[in-house]
Input
Amino acid sequence: MPLYLCASPNETIAQDKKQRISQAITDVHCDVTGAPPEFVHVYFFEAEQMRNLEPLTGGASIDDGYLLFGNIRSGRTDQVKLALVSGMRQKVAELLAVALPEVQMLTRDIDAKWVMEGGDLLPEPGEEAAWLEKHKQRIAAEKA
Amino acid sequence: MIKCISFLQEGQIPEHVIELLDRGIRNIVAANDLGKDVEINWIVVPHGQGWTAGAPSTSSVITLTAPPIEQSQRVEILHALCDLWTENTGCRADEVLATVIPAA
Output
């Protein structure tokens, strides 16, 4: 978490651009929220596949253009969400060389207590630092 | 209808293990009395389509819808899903993202 889904019309995102787009989305998320990058997931799908992802997207779909859909941890302020959306749309539009209106974006709040990553429930807003330290220690201990 | 979407990275988990995971998810749903009908959508993310931290992803993402349940039960289900993956696929705990969300 977060999980960002990028939907596009069939084969309109060149393979060599996907890493750059994923990096750009990751960078925006981390710059805006302070989250570490290892938790940022970006997956690409063709628009027609979005129908199969209804539990994740609430049924969001696109007829044309590009759609970014972010499942993000709840508790982010409207200001933070606006920064995420505007930053990601801008970067993705630049990388795809399309006009900004062609890149739509929606986000959905997911309660931290609904999610487990790395064997731990996600932290509630404000508890990230302590959680991250404890999480890293546990992962390191498991790898040892 | 209990719905589950599972994203797997292409080539990471063999077909026979996916079948085992499928049964495992159904067992978890049954053991927790979440519902009788379970629809599991297995989505293999092709090479180059899944990214984590800007690098090719090795993560599995499991999203399960559930009727209203106590948080304690949700945590048990989440642990069960994560354990199912780590015990059968070779994935590490930090390669498993599991979510149990309220059904719409």
Observations:
- Chain B has a mean pLDDT of 95.
- The helical segments of chain B are 15-31, 71-88.
